[in-house]
Write a structure and sequence with these properties.
Largest sheet: none
Low-confidence stretches: 1-18
Distance between the termini: 67 Å
Mean pLDDT: 92
Number of strands: 0
Order of helices and strands: HHHHHHHHH
Shape: globular
Structural class: mainly alpha
Radius of gyration: 22 Å
Helix content: over 70%
Length: about 220
C-alpha cells in the first residue's frame, strides 16, 4: 500500500511539473515588441494578484504567447493577401478567400488551446478575469451601463445582456486590434438594443433620463 501511495505521489508531482512548461516564445522577435507584450500581459497577472509567483510566470507566458500567436496569424493572412494581389479575377478572389480561411482555421485552434492552457493554472472565474483584462473590461463596463441606464430591467433581460456580452468577448479576444475588438462588441450592442426595443423599452427616452440622473450625481456620460 505504501509503495502504491509513493508511486501515486510521484506521478502527481511529475504531472504538475510537466504542466509548468510554458516558455516565452520570444526568439526572433523584436525586443521592444516583446517588452510591450510582456507589459500588456502583466496587467493580467496583476489583476489576478499572482505577478512574481511561479503560477504568475506561467500565466504571463501563456498570455504573452497568445498575443504573439495572434500577431503571427494575422501577419500570415496579410502576407497571403499581398501575394493574392498579383492575381486578377476569380484567381484573386480564391487566393484572398484562402488567406481568410487559413486565418479562421488557425484562430479556431488557437482560441480553444488558449482556454485549455489557462485551465492548467486557473479556475473558470480567473479565466474570465484574463479575458476581461485582454478586452478592456468591456463586458463589465457595458453591462453596468445598461443596468444603470434602465433600472427596471428584469432579471432574465439582464441575464440575456450579460450572455451576449460574454459571447462578444469570445470574438473580441481573437481580434487583431483594439478597433476590431470594439467592433466585435459593437455588433452585440446593436443586438442588445434591438432586443430591448422589442421588449418595449424606449431607448431614446431611457438614455435621456439616464443622462439626467448621471448629471444630478455629478457625473458625465
Amino acid at each position: 500500500m505504501r509503495t502504491i501511495l509513493t508511486v501515486f505521489v510521484a506521478l502527481l508531482s511529475l504531472s504538475v511539473t510537466n504542466a509548468q512548461t510554458f516558455t516565452l516564445d520570444s526568439n526572433g522577435r523584436d525586443k521592444d515588441y516583446v517588452n510591450t507584450i510582456l507589459g500588456r500581459s502583466k496587467k493580467v497577472t496583476d489583476a489576478l494578484n499572482i505577478t512574481g509567483t511561479e503560477k504568475g510566470t506561467e500565466v504571463l507566458n501563456i498570455v504573452a504567447n497568445r498575443y504573439f500567436e495572434l500577431n503571427d496569424i494575422y501577419e500570415e493572412r496579410d502576407s497571403l493577401k499581398a501575394a493574392a494581389s498579383k492575381f486578377t479575377g476569380d484567381a484573386k478572389k480564391q487566393a484572398q478567400a484562402f488567406a481568410e480561411s487559413q486565418k479562421d482555421s488557425k484562430l479556431y485552434r488557437s482560441h480553444f488551446a488558449f482556454d485549455a492552457d489557462l485551465s492548467l493554472f486557473l479556475n473558470a472565474a480567473e479565466i474570465e478575469t484574463v479575458k476581461d483584462v485582454m478586452t478592456y473590461n468591456v463586458v463589465k463596463v457595458t453591462y453596468d451601463a445598461q443596468c444603470d441606464m434602465i433600472p427596471t430591467l428584469k432579471e432574465e433581460e439582464k441575464a440575456q445582456i450579460l450572455a451576449w456580452l460574454k459571447e462578444a468577448r469570445e470574438f473580441a479576444i481573437d481580434a487583431e486590434s483594439s478597433r476590431k475588438k470594439h467592433e466585435a462588441f459593437g455588433k452585440y450592442k446593436g443586438r442588445i438594443n434591438n432586443y430591448l426595443s422589442k421588449r418595449g423599452y424606449d431607448l431614446t427616452k431611457e438614455r435621456e433620463e439616464w443622462a439626467k440622473r448621471v448629471k444630478a450625481r455629478g457625473g458625465t456620460l
